[in-house]
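F.,

This is the one I mentioned.
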């Protein structure tokens, strides 16, 4: 290398200078090629011996660590349970449902249950004293229940009546309740102390309305019919969700899901700084 450099300094001819520089670049390229080939040859044998350079402990001051999670041990176990439940029971049932039913029928079933969900949206819009939103939701429910044949179709959207997703967890957040600690529920998945209470209230209201109406009370198989409708609703709900456990490709999926869920709910309830 030093001989080539000294030779370069002694040349005055532009042609010789270009030729020498070219030779120097060739030598450098050959050296790089040999170095890289040596790395490639040893990579397969040494990769497993290299310890991880980072752990989650190094990132405790980052935003995804802001979520209160005092029950992390329990939550992680429940997250893992949900993965196995999903993989070996729930998703095979959903896949079977998707296999035996045409897409057209799947859309009608989803529309039916989404229309029933307008009752929850309406009650919580009323709890939040949102008059215009309540009127829109009521209009959607009436329109889809009549013109849309019980929600099988969605003419309300084409009429400009926007769907407003509401639940009692959002209602509590709207009136100032904090989310509380993060909580992973069996089957239901990511939640919080506030949203778990909201889920209980919404379920109680839905059950109360259903019991008062009692649409299958005159039949001898009302319990079996009700159970079948509830089971189909659960299958349809999972059918509409694209999330799959441990398929994100992210090394810290638990923390990512916790962070995204918490911030999404805070935005929806108006508690997040970005919502102000």
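My design for it:
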């Amino acid at each position: 290398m030093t001989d080539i450099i000294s030779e370069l300094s002694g040349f005055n001819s532009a042609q010789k200078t270009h030729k020498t520089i070219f030779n120097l670049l060739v030598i450098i390229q050959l050296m790089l090629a040999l170095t890289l080939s040596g790395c490639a040859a040893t990579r397969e044998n040494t990769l497993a011996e290299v310890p991880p350079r980072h752990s989650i402990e190094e990132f405790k001051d980052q935003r995804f660590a802001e979520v209160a999670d005092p029950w992390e041990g329990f939550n992680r176990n429940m997250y893992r349970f949900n993965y196995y439940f999903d993989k070996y029971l729930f998703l095979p049932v959903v896949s079977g449902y998707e296999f035996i039913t045409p897409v057209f029928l799947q859309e009608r079933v989803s529309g039916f249950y989404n229309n029933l969900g307008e009752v929850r949206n309406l009650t919580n819009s009323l709890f939040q004293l949102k008059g215009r939103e309540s009127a829109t939701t009521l209009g959607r429910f009436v329109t889809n229940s009549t013109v849309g044949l019980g929600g099988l179709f969605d003419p309300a959207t084409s009429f400009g009546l926007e769907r407003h997703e509401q639940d009692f967890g959002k209602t509590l957040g709207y009136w100032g309740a904090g989310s509380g600690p993060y909580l992973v529920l069996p089957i239901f998945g990511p939640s919080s102390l506030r949203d778990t209470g909201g889920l209980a209230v919404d379920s109680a209201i839905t059950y109360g309305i259903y019991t008062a109406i009692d649409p299958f009370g005159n039949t001898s198989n009302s319990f079996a019919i009700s159970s079948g409708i509830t089971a189909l609703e659960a299958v349809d709900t999972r059918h509409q969700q694209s999330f799959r456990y441990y398929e994100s490709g992210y090394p810290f999926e638990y923390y990512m899901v916790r962070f995204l869920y918490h911030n999404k709910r805070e935005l929806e309830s108006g508690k997040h700084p970005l919502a102000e």
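The chain has two domains: 2-49, 59-275.

Talk soon.
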